[in-house]
């Protein structure tokens, strides 16, 4: 059971309340935006390999539909609960508004541990969950995508299930699909690419040489693994990375390409067992507290809290994960002069290329990877500039500046549509 302090939904509401107060939003607007518009909880049976049946619980939450169809990933994890999904859906609303793509925010999740499921069980679970949420999902209504422990194969099963029910292929119903079934080039790398662009742009503004930056990355999955690799390709020294198996530190710089190959060849893509000359094993706590220039939390929520914020020794934090920093930690980091590029900006590359995938699917006209990456870069750099300029002008944190821009856009869209009669 989560306490109120680490409840992601309470945290998301607290972050919203701060922005709403500064924007002087009317009470009725605040009341609408601080809670999700729609929530669906589903309980569904799945046939296990041994012939038994297990009942799983899943959620799909649509936070706000004001700016368009809703968009957001699906998470498979034992700790998924309704408040986590509500928070993730709310963050999606602000994220889409900040990078100005025409979506509201949504998120989904199933309470399960995919590591304990066979591929057949995972497929049956996905197909049944897709059927249960089909009443709210659709290419013009709500478009899912991958999140923690879900991947292109799971998106393909999801799309195939909804297509079977309609009797024809509807590939724009979900993004993050394999290229063979309407996926976009560049989507798999997009979130990590966006994170790496934040590091590059911050260094440019601060007149720091990329070669001088030591970087630590927590999480080595779709976001953390790709971010570590692209940050390393920028010329930075990635000195520590970690996943659920713990951390791996080498002050001279890790060989990220080799570590990615190792993880890909091991069950569940774990780094467990990786060793190389000069590489030390550390725990997750030590990983986050490793002295560095840039820290990229890219795993789960609530990693930087009032319990460890005093001990973080980074100059810049780039939030690859959603919600890795609590509001109490934010205050401590701000007092200590540590800059945080907030999740709704830093990890917006994924949903941005999901938007490109959706557009390509609807038009049945596919772009080359260079076009995808170029458009992604334009959007991410422009959003970063807008947030930094506002933060500088008002003397506020990047998170608050990002919220002011995003919440204003969402409130305006809802007001213009006349949603508050
Ligand atoms: N995928 C996407 O496009 C986007 C994802 N995000 C956010 O990024 C974060 C990561 O997502 P994603 O990379 O897709 O998920 P993945 O499932 O691909 O990877 C998650 C990573 O986090 C690690 N991890 C899990 N628990 C811990 C822990 N307690 N300590 C250290 N590492 C841990 C996992 O390790 P192990 O493999 O060992 O379990 C894995 O390396 C989430 O917050 C997600 O919401 C945000 C925007 C888009
Ligand atoms: O690609 C998407 O549509 C959503 C990605 C996501 O879940 C996120 O940005 O947190």
UniProtKB/TrEMBL annotation:
The record marks 147 as: Important for catalysis. InterPro entries: Aminoacid_DH-like_N_sf, Glu/Leu/Phe/Val/Trp_DH, Glu/Leu/Phe/Val/Trp_DH_C, Glu/Leu/Phe/Val/Trp_DH_dimer, Glu/Leu/Phe/Val_DH_AS, Glu_DH, NAD(P)-bd_dom_sf, NAD_bind_Glu_DH. NAD(+) binds at residues 191, 222. The keyword Cytoplasm does not apply. One of its GO terms (biological process) is L-glutamate catabolic process. GO terms for molecular function: glutamate dehydrogenase (NAD+) activity; nucleotide binding. Residues 184-418 form the Glutamate/phenylalanine/leucine/valine/L-tryptophan dehydrogenase C-terminal domain. Belongs to the Glu/Leu/Phe/Val dehydrogenases family. It holds the Pfam family ELFV_dehydrog. Coiled coil: none annotated. Substrate binds at residues 71, 95, 354. This is Glutamate dehydrogenase. Keywords: NAD, Nucleotide-binding, Oxidoreductase. It comes from Roseiflexus castenholzii (strain DSM 13941 / HLO8). The active site is at 107 (proton donor). It comes from the Bacteria.
